[in-house]
Amino acid sequence: MDEKRELAGTRIYKWKDDDLPKALVYYLDNMSRSVPQASIDAPRKGEYHLHMDRERVTWKEFKADYDRGGFPATGKTTFFTFALVGSGAQGTAWKGCDEEGNACIVKVFDKLPKIEHELLREAVQKELQVWHEVFNEKRAFTVDLTTTPALIMPILDQPKNWDDQHRQAVRTAVQLYSARYFAEDLKKEHIGFYSKDANLKAILFDTQPTVARMGGKEDMLKKLEL
């Protein structure tokens, strides 16, 4: 049975409205006591989800058919997000799609003071290079969302349990990655799988790549208990 979703709203409050503080306290208290719902696998028509563009985040109705096998065209600037993948020191990754329903992962990097803005863009470009140059996955691209850099990546499978085929794919991915980079923060949550030419492939994503070091491959495999 489909779960019923209701969208509740309030009247519009002006910033100097005497009732605004009481309303904020009331709704924040209700939110803090609400029961979390399990994340969904895919959005459905008519549901409301977080919608991001270059400037802001809003709630918006999803009107397309979700296509897990699709991918947004380079240059798209508006995205829906519907399930949290994870968050790290640099940003937060979400399962999402464009307005036509083409599936992707949207990683929004954390906003930093202006003095560090160029350093942030360098971090985004370095992660994009991992996709393009290490794993030869050219579909990934960057875009500004909510006034901060974001990385749009292909959606990946993340099974809780790995069999021998998964483990071999991870070993191959770590070997490719370690030739150029090292991931100090590497965890199992940073591994994604996809099929290419009937073969299972693994990718390291949403990490903080640093310069490769001696013994890096062995250290990363140890982090993954391989």
Molecular structure report:
- With 226 residues, the protein is an alpha+beta fold.
- The mean pLDDT is 83.
- The strands form three sheets. Strands 2-1-3-4-5-7-6 form a seven-stranded antiparallel β-sheet, covered by helices on one side. Strands 8-11 form a two-stranded antiparallel ribbon. The chain has a two-stranded antiparallel ribbon with strand order 9-10.
- It has helices at 20-32, 117-134, 164-178, 216-223; strands spanning 48-52, 57-61, 79-87, 91-98, 103-109, 141-145, 148-153, 181-183, 191-196, 199-204, 209-211.
- The N and C termini lie far apart (41 Å).
- The protein folds into two domains: 48-153, 2-Layer Sandwich (Phosphorylase Kinase, domain 1), CATH 3.30.200; 164-223, no CATH class.
- α3 packs antiparallel against α4.
- It contains four helices and eleven strands.
Topology:
Blueprint: H1 20-32, E1 48-52, E2 57-61, E3 79-87, E4 91-98, E5 103-109, H2 117-134, E6 141-145, E7 148-153, H3 164-178, E8 181-183, E9 191-196, E10 199-204, E11 209-211, H4 216-223
Helix pairs in contact: 3-4
